[in-house]
Amino acid sequence: MTAQTLTKDAPIAAVEKSALSIIDYSLAYKTANGLIPALQNIDLTIPKGKTVGLVGESGSGKSSMAWSIMRYLPSNAVETGGAIRLAGEELLDYTPYQMMDIRGRRMSMVFQDPSTSLNPTIKLGEQIAEVLMRHRGLTKAQAWAEAEAALGRTGITRPKEMLQRFPHEASGGEKQRVVIATAFACEPELIIFDEPTTALDILTARQILDLFNQLREETNVSALYISHDLGLVSRVVDRVSVIHKGIIVESGSVQEVFRRPKADYTRQLIGAVPDPDRWVGVDAPGEPKTLLRIDKVGVRYGAPTKLQAMFWPTDAETVGFWGAKDISIDVRKGELLGVVGESGSGKSTIAKVLAGLQDFEGKLDFDGKAITSRNAIDRAYRRRVQIVFQHPDASLNPRHRIGTIIARPLKLYGIVPKHEIKARVAELLEMVRLPASYADRLPHQLSGGEKQRVAIARAFAAEPELVICDEVTAALDVSVQAAVAELLVKLQRNTGAACVFITHDLNLIRQLAHRIAVMHHGKLVDFFDRVDARSVDRDPYAKALLDAVPVHAGEPEA
Amino acid sequence: MRNFFSTPTAIVGTALLSVVCFAAIFGPWIAPYDPQAFDPLNRLQGPSPAHWFGTDQFGRDLLSRILNGAPSTVTFGVGATLIGVGIGSIIGVVAGVSGGWADSTIMRILDGLLAVPDLLFTLLIVTIFGGGMEHAMLAVAIAFAPGMARIARSAVLSVRTRDYVRAAVARGESGFYIVGAEVLPNALSPIVVEATIRVSFAIMIGATLGFLGLGAQPPSTEWGLMVAEARQFMFRNPWCVAVPGLSIAIAALGFNLFGDALRDSLDPKRSHG
């Protein structure tokens, strides 16, 4: 199959002209359990001036591919064959010393997280100028002038000031612009983008994507765009390759792959991308009854101590900052309430308040009982309100077996008699579609999605009336995300529990939630029924968020 | 844990440690001579078929003395560490779990104690308690406690903010359950590793105290004391200083390398490979 695509799509002459051609390349890692293949018979061609997307889930080998091209592999990597050619030159033959000249000048890379890819102790200007001096032989003054121009091209309003700043003085989006400016600085033939927007907020990510498209047109650079997000890739690349377990399962033009996927895996991946217009949630509760209401709830981090309040009452008003302020939301019985916002918007703070993990000001009204402080939250409340955390690796005690973990709420709240615990655990495991034999396993023997199912089973073991899901799908792969969301809906349908679903994924929440609350900088900016998502009286910020969401794969951009 | 023996550190450490432990357990029985028997005719001899490691200033067989001294030396190291780790861990866990002003108070006091070098601190305690093996052991244990408390506290703190602990809090678990079942088992490995490494320091401090005449008293076969007693005869027979000195080095190195290897294999980042 691989040989076919090569001859059909790219005759030998085109291979010579292409910016990058990878031919029948294989890579394996040497581990204690022998040689583990990471990439197998990869064929990938990036024509000059084109962008090719490489899409795959975590562990698919897409990052290994990036490092193979950059010739920066760990010492236990074994290349078992094939060729990687940059403009016809064989990179595999170059010595590490020769590669130093090529990296940065002829190929460069943009990483996922701009906060870790920039050196925190060096000014941003110096970090760009350094590359220019090293590869283009400019003097310091020339390099700084050139750096300013490069930053200006990335849409930073005051590039001169930005050059003088340190990384911590710039926002995530600004930092990523600096990284991109550095990558484009030497006008390389090829740039590798390794999930450049994953660590950024939706709105910033959207801007970075627009910037990427603009720079691509201006410079006519060839690029490899690596991502797990199909919707996003579909709007920036010309051709796309789908990689699964180290094998490219499908390649073709964007339209072709998304409209008429050939491989089963691609079809599965496309099906898993949340589509805001496809409703999968439970039916809305017939007659709305309020289960929980929070009234003007606020959380202040770094609140003044008693001493401060006593002696410096004026200062005490201003110290610390409000993680959330004046939030009033109500949750109805049996509904799914979506809380959306960017990182730092205070949405997780609200989750912590509801779960009784955070001190708060204001009033919390649960089923007719008013609670005004965290200490007033009793065990009965804690049983009826359960929380599922974002990272399944962190939320299960690594030393407890799955059976012990799920049985704990049963024992603690005395939900079933002692001799029935084992049977109930098996039942709960089955409810989240895991085999009963998993009860004897330890968390590290499970995959991320399976662990999240265990965490969900533990929450539902308490037979709660409200389940708080704090970004439960954010740490999971796309295809697993869909399955977990679907499972949650099924459990909700069977148990009638209400759910507060906290997320930054607007497409997903519009599939699930009856009502959506939008948070920004610790404040509730909008609260609406899902059917009104597109109505004109939406808050401008909510509107911007909805507009920034990547268009669904394959559909023409609006 | 599976690949514990994959590094040279682990192999060498375990080998040295087994030699030392073997000597500590069976030493007194396999010693060829009475460790206290004088033999004036064969004083200060080098290694020979009759005396494998030579003899000391009274003609006593060095091998027998080393083998006889092994149990007390190892017991001293392990015992002092165990007591020190016990005291330190309790303080550290209490500080880490309670947090707030209790934590600050305890840690500031410990910081003050940590500013005094281990050996000096031990000497200070020995001068208060008086010399002798038991007192020296207690002194080393007390000197170790602040450092161990710091490690225990940091282990507890790093575990305390994990989601599974927060999940337990959200469930309404009792504080006792949270500490006992969720926090402690996960905070234990750094404590165990540090303890193993500290045994080597305890052995060395014990030997130093013996050398200074503040630990074991003659005619004990404690290794540090043996070095001190043989010092005058160092130039006539270097063996009587080198043999106990090397024994101390081997015991300390064995515990140290073993501890290092243990840390590497318990480190989740490495063991998942």
TrEMBL record, chain A:
Bilayer topology: Peripheral membrane protein
Residues annotated as domain ABC transporter: 20-270, 305-546
InterPro entries (UniProt xref): AAA+_ATPase, ABC_transp_ATP-bind, ABC_transporter-like_ATP-bd, ABC_transporter-like_CS, Oligopep_ABC_C, P-loop_NTPase
Subcellular location: Cell inner membrane
Entry keyword annotation includes Nucleotide-binding: yes
A Pfam family assignment: oligo_HPY
Entry superkingdom: Bacteria
Entry-linked SUPFAM superfamilies: P-loop containing nucleoside triphosphate hydrolases (SSF52540)
Entry keyword set: ATP-binding, Nucleotide-binding, Transport
GO MF annotations, alphabetized: ATP binding
Primary location: membrane
Family: Belongs to the ABC transporter superfamily.
Name of the molecule in the record: Peptide/nickel transport system ATP-binding protein
From TrEMBL, chain B:
UniProt membrane topology term: Multi-pass membrane protein
One Pfam family matching this protein: OppC_N
Keyword Acyltransferase: no
Keyword Transport: yes
Residues of the ABC transmembrane type-1 domain: 70-259
TM spans (from-to): 12-31, 74-97, 109-129, 135-153, 237-258
Name of the molecule in the record: Peptide/nickel transport system permease protein
